Amino acid sequence: MSWRKLRICLFALLGCFGAVWVCAQQPVATNAEPKKGKWESEVALGLTLTSGNRETWLLTGDARTQRKKPPTEWSFGLNASYGETEDVKSTELLRGYGQANRLWGEYWFLYARGDGLHNDITGVDYRFAVGPGLGRYLLKRSRTSLSVEAGATFVWERVSSAANDYVAVRFAERFEHKFNDRARVWHSVEWLPAVDDWSDYVLTAEAGVDSALSKLLSMRVYVQDIYDSEPALGRKPNDLRLVSALVVKF
After folding, report:
1. Residues 6 or more apart from 167 whose CB is under 8 A from it?
2. Closest to 94 (Cα-Cα) out of 126, 56, 129, 46
3. What's the CA gap between 158 and 162, in Å, rounded?
4. CA–CA separation, 147 and 81 (whole Å)
5. Which residues form the domain of 134?
6. Is 166 helix (H, G, I), strand (E, B) or coil?
7. CA 226 to CA 22: how far, in whole Å?
């Protein structure tokens, strides 16, 4: 690893420790109610660095924002990863999404969603998916929520420099539970099989735990898995990431 890259990693670590020290001075709200109708945003940063027998570094970033103000719910997210092993690129991923829900009664909702993905290591130059659908909350409580969604998705992609487009069916599920004001767990699953060949699909899953350090700061550990049943030539179908990150909420 070059000295320039090492300095970048060290400065990033110092910034994280500085954020921990500043935010740790803030008291943790023990019975705070969520601000309904307000945008709730967060930025997570993670860094992995090894040196010695093998020199590697991996930097991850994750930004999310949402607003739940009936009858409309908005959510947006962007996460990225870049890493090198022995000065050779080992990770380059960029993934984003946006979704709008229009509530229909207390539990049902219509949604419109868009996703984008770039994963250089797996040969995905780009993959965009856009489409509408129908969803329902199976659980909708102050600390626990469980929802399922189904709809149509139009996919445009270029894998290993070969462009393709097709129509897929989208099935999704998301669960979240808050143990208290300090800790929560969640998981989500999305399955996109092609309409004309259900053996051709992309399965995306995520699960994690978040623990508050202060009102503005928390630590997060999560795993993301993207499984492509028909990967690019010479690539494996499964792409798994385990990330630990420092999260700033605002």
Report:
1. 152, 153, 154, 155, 194, 195, 196
2. 126
3. 5
4. 28
5. 3-249
6. strand
7. 36
Task: Tell me what percent of the residues of the chain surpass a pLDDT of 70.
Answer: 86
pLDDT exceeds cutoff 60 at 178 = yes
The Cα 182–Cα 143 span in angstroms is 12
* Counted domains in the chain: 1
**Does residue 71 have a cis bond before it (omega within 30 degrees)?**
yes
Cα–Cα nearest to 133, from 153, 115, 103, 162: 153
Q: Which residues pair with 43 in a beta bridge?
A: 63, 248
Q: Per-residue pLDDT averaged across 187-209, rounded? A: 95
For residue 215, give the amino acid letter. K
What's the sign of the alpha-carbon dihedral 239, 90, 48, 82?
negative
